[in-house]
Amino acid sequence: MEKIKDDNSKTRILEAATILFAQKGFDGTSIREICKKANVNLCMISYYWGGKQELYQGIIDDLLEKQIEYSKNFLDLNKNPEDMSVEQCFDLLITISDKFVDFFYTNISSDLIVLLLKEQQKPDFSVKSPVLDYMRRVVARILNRDVNDRIVIFKTLFMLSQVNSPRILPAFSLRQLGQDDFCQEDIKIIKENVKCYINTVLKEAINND
């Protein structure tokens, strides 16, 4: 019972499960292995989630919760982008992308990236991220298009790819740099690259007016 009161046990389980699911897959990972790696009692899984499937979903839910909580420092999800000017949306988009870089490179482990990449290939995988949805609304306002327009969807996707591609493709980034992780200089370059792309999007919007 004392272990149930351990505030760190839930975090340890999530971290252990993420590593094992990424390395061995869902079917190849057992509850016993997760608890052993997390150094917790077997009953902790059912206490927090109910079972292995719920724990697996819990990893995704935990990421989204952290993303939403992090975004509260710089973003008001209740503010309608359509009520903002293009210039205001552009400035907001720069801020969002800048903060996304910080979040992605400090809160998401390599194992979680592997897990998410595997999940993306499943036809029934779907993630509802209020923060990413809001970003798409901002892009739609800048381009003066519907939020479900193909161009808006792809532009938003390409912006996100500018943020995460160095981590998703370490063979073309870290290994060529001869590093195990990204330094602050790297983060600065990534942010500037994203800003450059967003500037291109804004110029396109202005030219089409």
Continuous helix count: 10
Strand count, sense and barrel status of the largest sheet are: none
Cα-to-Cα separation, first versus last residue: 65 Å
Radius of gyration (CA) equals 19 Å
Structural class, from helix and strand content?
mainly alpha
Query: What is the CATH architecture annotation of the largest domain?
Result: Orthogonal Bundle
Oligomer: single chain
> CATH superfamily name of the largest domain?
Tetracycline Repressor, domain 2
**CATH structural fold name of the largest domain:** Tetracycline Repressor, domain 2
CATH class of the largest domain: Mainly Alpha
Q: Estimate percent helicity.
A: 55-70%
- The SSE order reads HHHHHHHHHH
Portion in strands: under 5%
Structural commentary:
This protein is an all-alpha fold and about 210 residues long. It has two domains: about 1-60, Orthogonal Bundle (Arc Repressor Mutant, subunit A), CATH 1.10.10.60; about 70-209, Orthogonal Bundle (Tetracycline Repressor, domain 2). It is built from ten helices and no strands. The protein has helices at about 10-25, 30-40, 45-50, 50-70, 85-105, 110-120, 130-145, 150-170, 175, 185-209. α1 (about 10-25) packs across α4 and α5 (about 85-105) packs antiparallel against α7 (about 130-145). The longest helix is centred in the C-terminal third of the chain and has 25 residues, at about 185-209. It is globular and about 60 Å long.
